[in-house]
Design goal:
The protein is of the alpha+beta class and 190 residues long. It is built from three helices and seven strands; from the N terminus they run ββαβααββββ. Among the domains are: 67 residues, 3-Layer(aba) Sandwich (Severin); 50 residues, Severin (3-Layer(aba) Sandwich). A four-stranded antiparallel sheet has the order 5-4-6-7, with no helix packed on it. A three-stranded mixed sheet has the order 1-2-3, covered by helices on one side. β4 and β5 form a beta hairpin. One of its GO terms (biological process) is actin filament severing. It holds the Pfam family Gelsolin. This is Gelsolin-like domain-containing protein.
Length: 190
């Protein structure tokens, strides 16, 4: 995104394409990511968000299309999974410095997040699904009601329905941990 305009980036999708003084838009169909480099200016960040909204409108996408803002150094697994090559490793060496800059930037924009500068980055960990004898519960959503699925139906999702899943498992020294998710069928009604 350059001055609020979208410029197509050619080549294989890899982390090396992302410059820390720019913002990028990644179209993944049902979700749009706006990646924000640590060294971008406030006006560029605002323009990037507006560009994403304008892009959705110009492409005649549904208003339910999700826009996810991703800040450099805090990329989620969902974002990184779209790249052919993303270096392994937890947090980059500039993460602490980056957190402080992000906190200052958000404060400058009027967002009051006191703990952000001290908080550790979000690390998405997928639980060891179905490995530790955890308990899986699934509900089909019908309007505002939820109906539990019988065990023999778990794993059969239909495109006209929406589901909530809850996986309860034991992780390390904790008693119980949870993995909550939702599945929205492409033909389901709003």
């Amino acid at each position: 995104i350059v001055d609020g305009d979208l410029k197509l980036v050619e080549g294989e999708l890899s982390k090396s394409l992302l410059e820390n003084n720019r913002c990028y838009l990644l179209d993944c169909g049902d979700e749009i990511f706006v990646w924000v480099g640590r060294l971008t200016q406030v006006d560029e960040r605002k323009a990037a968000s507006l560009s994403a909204e304008e892009y959705i409108t110009s492409q005649s996408r549904p208003k339910s299309t999700r826009i996810t803002k991703v800040i450099q150094g805090y990329e989620t697994h969902a974002f990184k999974s779209n790249f052919g090559s993303w270096p392994l490793g937890s947090v980059n060496s500039g993460a602490e410095e980056g957190r402080g800059k992000v906190a200052a930037l958000l404060k400058q924009q009027g967002v009051g997040l006191k703990a952000l500068a001290k908080a550790a980055p979000v690390i998405e960990e997928v639980p060891p699904l179905l490995e530790g004898g955890g308990k899986m519960e699934v509900w089909r959503i019908n309007g505002s009601a939820k109906t539990p699925l019988p065990n023999e139906e778990i794993g059969k999702f239909y495109s006209g329905d929406c589901y909530i899943t809850l996986y309860t498992y034991h992780a390390g020294d904790r008693k119980e941990d949870y993995f909550l998710g939702c599945w929205i069928g492409k033909d389901s009604l709003e």
